[in-house]
Amino acid sequence: MDAPVARSRLTPERESELYETVIDLLGEVGYDGLTMDAIAARTRSSKATLYRQWGSKPQLVAQSLRHHRPVELAEIDTGSLRGDLHEMVGRSDDCRLAKDSAMVRGLAHAVGGNPELHRALRELLVEPEVTGLDRILRRAVERGEVSAGNPALDLVPHLMIAVFVSRSLIEERPVDQAYLATYVDAVVLPALGAP
């Protein structure tokens, strides 16, 4: 992996604004329709600055996703698996969840055909979230809420990502907190054999 590129020329506020613009554009036009020119125009930046700061479109998209959804799952510990999963759901409001759904749809197709994007997403977003979720599940096993041999333990990350794609495909609606809470109680916890 290349060394991170220095970002000293942008203020934290400006960088945050740029990341949110990338997220918005992903939801509007998808990954393939997202261009550095469009990002530069919407953020009143130069394309050269974007490349100098992030190196490539996949790196910028991955950093934007990481900024948009900082991984804090490992620190969640309410004392029960159900409580932990509901706390995880409660960390995003309905507006952000709708944005996340649009973003997932925008990236789903692109990841398969772009190894650089796939690698960046895995390193910066997927692996840290899976690690955090794994810690939540490991604590549930230690508390005796879930059997250590339950094969669904390895499938929970797949279940949590799938909900963002499936609801929009089937119902043409984004996920919201109420839907995710129901999904956790009706699908994830029963799959794990948890109370």
Describe the 3D structure.
- With 195 residues, this protein is mainly α.
- It has helices at residues 12-33, 36-43, 47-54, 57-68, 81-90, 94-113, 115-142, 156-171, 177-192.
- Helix 4 packs parallel to helix 7 (115-142) and helix 5 packs antiparallel against helix 9 (177-192).
- The model is unreliable at 1-8 (pLDDT under 50).
Question: Which keywords apply here?
Answer:
single chain; 9 helices; mainly alpha; 0% strand; disordered N terminus; 195 residues
Précis, in short:
By secondary structure, the chain is mainly alpha-helical. The protein has helices spanning 12-33, 36-43, 47-54, 57-68, 81-90, 94-113, 115-142, 156-171, 177-192.
Itemize the secondary structure elements and their pairings.
Layout (H helix, E strand, L loop, with lengths): L11 H22 L2 H8 L3 H8 L2 H12 L12 H10 L3 H20 L1 H28 L13 H16 L5 H16 L3
Helix pairs in contact: 1-2, 1-4, 1-6, 4-7, 5-9, 8-9
Reported for the largest beta sheet, the result is: none
Helical fraction equals over 70%
Estimate the global geometry from the Cα principal axes: elongated
- The chain-level structural class is mainly alpha
Radius of gyration: 18 Å
Note the total helix count: 9
Alpha carbon gap, first and last residue: 42 Å
Mean pLDDT: 86
Percent of sequence in beta strands: under 5%
Count of beta strands: 0
Low-confidence stretches: 1-8
